[in-house]
Amino acid sequence: MIRLLSRASLVAALAFAFTTLPVVAYAQDTRYIVKFNAGRSNAGRAAVAGAGGRVVLSLDRQDAVAAHIPERALAGLSRNPNIEYI
Description:
Layout: H1 2-28, E1 29-36, H2 41-50, E2 54-59, E3 64-70, H3 74-78, E4 83-85
Antiparallel strand pairs: 1-3, 1-4, 2-3
C-alpha cells in the first residue's frame, strides 16, 4: 500500500512540475513590440539588450523590434528616451 501511494505521489508531483514550468517561464519573459524614436534604433536595441531583452524579429522599416523582455524591465524601458512605446 505504501509503495502504491509513493508511486502515485511521485506521478502527481511530476505531472504538476511539467505542467506548471512552461507557464512560469512564459510569464517571466513575454514578447513585445518595441518601437524606437526616429534615428534611435541602435541605442534602443542596446537598451533592450541591456535590460535583459532578446530581439527575435527586426522590423527595420518600422524602426521597431519584437523582443522577449523580462517583466521587471518594462517600466525602465518605457521611460527610455530612445523608445517611443512598448
